[in-house]
Write a structure and sequence with these properties.
Layout lengths: L2 H18 L1 H4 L7 H8 L9 E5 L7 H7 L5 E5 L3 H10 L5 E4 L16 E6 L8 H14 E11 L5 H7 L2 E7 L6 E7 L3 H7 L1
């Protein structure tokens, strides 16, 4: 099967998931490859030991993340849509990848004792999530992040920035115009940039 046909099928699945649950999916089409790379460039994957992806979808982020990881890294990809879980599980066969059909609120349940997350990658639409779910998720991310860990996230508005600033000590923002719609990219850390660099 050609890559063009696979891409069209994945876009159709993504669009169906959006129609079924627009609050959880958040976008009509998968994120552009350029926007994905721009967002991931805001984190250091070279030293990561454990990476978590929130809202893995069809794997637009997952595939690029795997390219940046060492052979011994764990990548836990969370997705609540069963159809998208099946799509991603069938598409990517990599021993580092664990596709998890569960909410991003439950990251800690899948970590080993004492294990911390170096990078969290989020494609979730924060402004569309129920307030309780969103609060629990941010608290969970703060709890599992390594001292110099970072969460990178893509949003389609700046509305989430103030909320991110309430939960994280450092929030950086970039814009990726090569996406429909234009994407706002965030890098969030529990430590200020100077504190994180001093720990390295």
């Amino acid at each position: 099967m050609s890559s063009i046909k696979i891409d069209i099928q994945e876009r159709v699945r993504f669009f169906r998931s959006f129609l079924a649950n627009p609050r959880a999916v958040g976008a009509i089409l998968p994120t552009s490859k350029k926007a994905v790379r721009d967002m991931l460039d805001m984190a250091d994957f070279g030293q990561a030991r454990c990476v978590v992806e929130l809202g893995a979808g069809t794997g637009a982020y997952t595939e690029e993340v795997l390219k940046r990881l060492r052979p011994d890294v764990r990548l836990l990809a969370f997705e609540v849509d069963r159809d998208l879980v099946e799509t991603l599980s069938g598409r990517l066969d990599d021993p580092r990848l664990e596709v998890i059909h569960d909410s991003a609120e439950n990251i800690g349940d899948y970590l080993s004792e004492g294990e911390k997350v170096d990078v969290v990658v989020s494609g979730l639409p924060f402004t569309s999530l129920p307030e309780k779910v969103k609060r629990n998720m941010f608290e969970q991310v703060r709890r599992v992040l390594a001292p110099d860990g970072v969460m990178v996230a893509i949003q389609y508005s700046t509305f989430a920035q103030k909320e991110l600033e309430r939960h994280f000590d450092s929030v950086r923002r970039r814009v990726s115009l090569v996406n429909v719609p234009p994407a706002f990219l965030f890098a969030c850390s529990a430590a200020l940039p100077q504190e994180a660099s001093e720990r390295r």
